[in-house]
Design brief:
With 186 residues, the protein is an alpha+beta fold. Helix content is 37%, strand content 27%. The chain contains 6 helices and 7 strands. Strands 1, 2, 3, 4, 5, 6 and 7 form a 7-stranded antiparallel β-sheet that branches. A hairpin with a 3-residue loop joins β6 and β7. α3 packs across α6. The longest helix has 25 residues.
Amino acid sequence: MSKIKILIILISMGLFSCFSKKDLDNNLIKPEINESFKELIEISYDYLNAQQDSCKTIYDLGSYARWDYNQETGFIEFSDSGVVKIKIKYEEVGSISTTSNTWLWAWNNESLLPQVKSEIGKIKEFGIQNQYRQLFKPKWYGDEYDGWAMTAIAAKIMKAKGAYRIPTENLYSFVIFKEIEDLRKK
């Protein structure tokens, strides 16, 4: 058997790659930002900042002693002294890994339950329609600022009521608020 045939067999079996680790990492390079995308980020931040201000003013978010979120229910709950004050139906947007310094869209994250990423595919479709690679490339090098920018865009497009960054040991998960239930008055 010739060396070329052996190489083809090894590549097809996934046992050999003609790409180095560096070449594979190039697939994670952050897409370039054009002027149109910069404008989208700017108007999206304006929208999200207004929503965040409303959440702080109306629901007093940021003042509660505790918050909990649950993928199975799809809710974030803000509470004081064990009493839930605000209950928010959320949608996962994506996450930043502080280990690999990468952004991963929720629609491509297999560890998330379907109920918390049921609508985020709209952002991917918007990205494809407008040729914004940041919105349809599943994973790329990024930082917390990129996470907030993608969250702002998702909030604007999906008419979210606010957003939150959930810190864990090696991740920042970004979510948008779909529905807010005020339990303080009940």
